[in-house]
Amino acid sequence: xxxxxxxYPQGVGYIDGEYCxxxxxxxxxxxxxxxxxxxxxxxxxxxxxxxxxLDLHLDRWERSISIRRFTTLPLDCxxxxxxxxxxxxxxxxRDAMVYxxxxxxxxxxxxxxxxxxxxxxxxxxxxxxxxxxxxRMESGVDIIVSSVQRTPPEAIDPTVKNFAxxxxxxxxxxxxxxxxxxxxxxxxxxxxTEGRGWNIFALSGGKLVSPDRGVLEGxxxxxxxxxCRHTNIxxxxxxxxxxxxxxxxxxFMTSTAGGIMPVRKIDDQVIGGGVxxxxxxxxxxxxxxxxxxxxxxxxVDY
Length: 302
Ligand code: PLP
Fold this sequence. Notes:
Elements: E1 12-15, E2 18-21, H1 32-35, E3 39-47, E4 50-52, H2 54-67, H3 77-91, E5 96-103, E6 120-127, E7 141-149, H4 166-177, E8 182-186, E9 199-204, E10 207-210, H5 219-231, E11 234-237, H6 242-247, E12 250-255, E13 259-266, E14 269-270, H7 278-289, E15 297-299
Parallel strand pairs: 7-8, 7-13, 10-11
Antiparallel strand pairs: 1-2, 1-6, 3-4, 3-5, 4-15, 5-6, 9-10, 9-12, 12-13, 13-14
The structure holds pyridoxal-5'-phosphate.
């Protein structure tokens, strides 16, 4: 079935042990996931009816659950995987973004003791989308280097995917004021980190660099580095300054939501020739080709 004929055009959700239309999902305001951002999540995608690198997403999820000490979740990892499959199956979507979210849950009383909470699990599958507008996928986006500092990793561990994102929100407000839609944030030492929902790469002198610290260890970022190894493109995780970024030959963002997305301009600096560079294009083609490979993807049983 194609997405147009779908009875759930806004997707399918799972909450409190039940499936429902995505737009009918509700979270009580007493949930400490809302009150404290005491939560974690992951996001995986389905392309042409196949989950991409589901094993890696579930590994990252299990690690996040363990670090957040969510010990009273109603489902184990196999149960979670079945729910994700079922959300996609019920939605009939061939191309989907699929979210899995765990929150601390609501506390027993006004003391809000974290230990009194039953952890909550929810998931949803919605039509696939990217973090940048579809008409910018080839031409690239204009971004700013924000003056808002990324929350330090010692305060909130960015490798545990989370919705504690006021730094990103403030950086986006700054970007809008400066006529852009996206912002990359620096850490307190002036090193480049990431943006809301994406990692970043810069190509200089034939070598790709993506920040090595203070970021989510993105699965798209990892896939790009693996592709580079197989194609003899030099790539490494290492520190990157805002000046390195502005002076690069090519810059791209990476995310489950959109894949590999070119950057055209940073602040007022046009990157390369202002068009998607050859390395970005080559990696983008290779990235999407991997999606049909059974070693990297898992079929949905519709
Ligand atoms: N960085 C942040 C802050 C993110 O939220 C995301 C994805 O949502 C990414 C990077 C990209 O990670 P992935 O490639 O696993 O989607």
